[in-house]
Structure prediction request, 713 residues.
Amino acid sequence: MPRTQLDANGVVKGYKLYVSNNPFETVSGGKTAAQIVSALGDPAMEGTFSYDGETSASLKTATAASVLKGRYVLFVVTDAVTKEAPKCFATCAEFYLAKGPTIEAKTMTYHYKVDDVEYATRSVQYVDASTAAVPTIDYLTNGTITDNADGSKDVACTTTYPFVAQTTFDANTAHWYSMAVRANDGNHLLAAKDNGKVGTITKGTLPDGCPEGIADEMQWAFVGNLKDGFKLYNKANNKQIVVKQVTETKNGKTTTYTQLELADNEGAALKLRKDNNGFGLYATEGNCFNRYDQDRIAQWEGFDDGSTFRIQEPNDYVLQYAARFALVDDSDAPEGAIGANSYLSVAENSNAFKAAYTAASAEGATAEQIKALAAENGKVAAATTTTMEIGKYYRLYNKAHKKYACLNDNPAQVTSKLIGTVNGKGASSVFYIENAGTGRYRIKVGDLTLGKASKSTDIALGDNNYGNKGSYVISHAGKIFWFFDKATNSNYSYIHAANSGANMVGWEAQSDTYASQWYVVPATDVEIDMTAQGDKKYASAYLPFGVSNVAGATAYTGALNAEKNAIDMTATTSVPANIGFVLVGTEDKATLTIGEATAIAGENVLTGTNTGIAFAEATPKANYLVFGVNNGTVGFYTPGNVTAIPANKAYINASEISNQAIALNFGNTVTGINAATINNGENNAPIYDLSGRRVWAPVKGGLYIQNGKKLVK
Prediction:
């Protein structure tokens, strides 16, 4: 027995049947279904079911030429009525095996009634009444079922429309709606056009779009019922939608199509079709109306997301826009946070705005109160605000967790998620904004781009070749920002700080308001911790942005000397992006100003990492020389007892030199310090035995020579 009689999707067409006394192999054993079936040989039965001329899927039977004996049966579907090439999928409501006479199906007819008025009739086949399901009708809820004398059944139903419909049209009491059609590529609202046609006007999405509300041309009322259909009236002119056959000739080709227009006379009653995301409207069964272009709603052969209408309450645009300002509290914003609205910054204006919102959002609010709030919204929308700009650097501070977003501090996970941190001045908390098309932006951190945001999934990061980049719409109310991934375009596409800020995922902004809210602070500088070594303090750095000034230290780049056993360091006042350098000073922190930098003169052997490098088999330590100290000498050494090079640190490619260590020459002086900056005092200089032979694995307690001195390991 195929699935529901009105849905041919996956209905079995071609089949094979195998019988065996032993269990058949399953795909859980590692083989594919095709491999398993191929190894079985000839089937006990095979054939094709025919559905020609049938308006519904009825019981299909097949009989073997002889009695088949076995404990196990395998039914293989080789073709289906509808399928997605190259795959075939199948559905089944009931499946029977029997010996003897052919199985026969019985028929049951159901009459679906609302207040004793019949709305629809369905006849279905069944073999076993105990397993037969009563079909459902879109927008009808099944209730009590009673038997009729003729053997049919009545189903008492209630209606569940996605809108409120009138019995007869009354403009004074009508419930007006705006409707988005083809919402998969924009908020296209059904509208009455000046040329008498029904088309669309594209508006911004809730809650940012249309702060002053939806015009009457984009508002509609429904009159009718599911049985007779619904007539749609436009608020601007009280005209009704009519269905017109239009013939056009272009380039010698004549085309006839059906479209929606407006008229004063009796309009068309359009039927309703259900979709998980909305509903379809049609005049001819199976052919729903679709947005052809902004000036035409035309009949479409079929039903898909492009022909799906989504109901909206027009007042929602006014109320939701205002709520972003009236209900948010940005009093806890960190110093320097941007986004303040110049109109609402005046106490008198703010009080008037909040009073208008309170009145308009109350139950039973009048049209005049909605209009008053819309007028206030217009003043807010027209006011000056500061928002994020392309080509600028920012830090993102989460309202819920009071932490800045930054790169994960584990290099092995840096491309899989973001992590919250209390450090608001680190280099890994600096985000960069790039253009990604009209009203959309790429968001980068550490030279990596944030990926798409989807429900409960860590937001991944990728380089310039990353194919799953997010495309974010940036909106804000006051100083609170939201980041919505337009590429994903679902409710769960807001950047959200999950697990107490431990990682960033896609989520609904409304589900946890604060964790999806962010403060934005311009990133003008970074602080780098310096490590004391003798009378100086040191650090290495590598940054994804330029440094225009250094305070609290002096920046040095370096070139290998002729012997390639030392690096001649050169002081610089600015450093371009992605250039390794060393900081030398006397302060605990060096403050680096983000900005334009002149190119480095001469060669610079120092490179680095913005995201960190985790040491593993594929990235052995021997490939790198990291900044540190050995026996009082500042230099770059083979990494010691560490598992990774942290983000924003400089290193030297070991292939540049032949030694495992190299000293730094600051003005013909090799500077000495007492402990390591990055390798925590690990002694990396070569070790020799007393005969002068290089020792790679010294034995504990043995006597050796290192840096010209005898020592016991």
The helical segments are 33-38, 314-326, 347-361, 367-382. Residues 367-382 form the longest helix (16 residues). Residues 670-684 have pLDDT under 50 and may be disordered.
